[in-house]
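Researcher: Excuse me, tokens okay?
***
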Amino acid sequence: MDIIKVVCGIIFKDNRVLICRRKLEKSLGGFWEFPGGKVEESESFEKSLRRELAEELGLEVSIDSHFMSNVHQYERATIELISFKCSTDQVEIKLIDHDQVEWIDPTTLLEWKLAPADIPIANALIKAL
């Protein structure tokens, strides 16, 4: 089975991090995640992340650095979640693939119902703070 490459942004603004809740009718509906999406063929990870954030949230970010990657086996697919630390000054966010967004204290990440592939990234982020 192929591993699906997915990028996500750990987006900071004013010492808070952005998490988004997946719409209930989507796969993993109701789970919170770092926003992002699938990498298209011949697309760099950074280009893919910028495209996905623009499409799903109308959000522009500065990508600061690669943070970590995590391979996770879901019931229907295996993904490699590739995370990047990002920042933004943007205030307005459009909800397209998500039904809620929150800017939270990153030390509280594990108090949220995170998608399973995002949990190791949240753990590493908290340890790095």
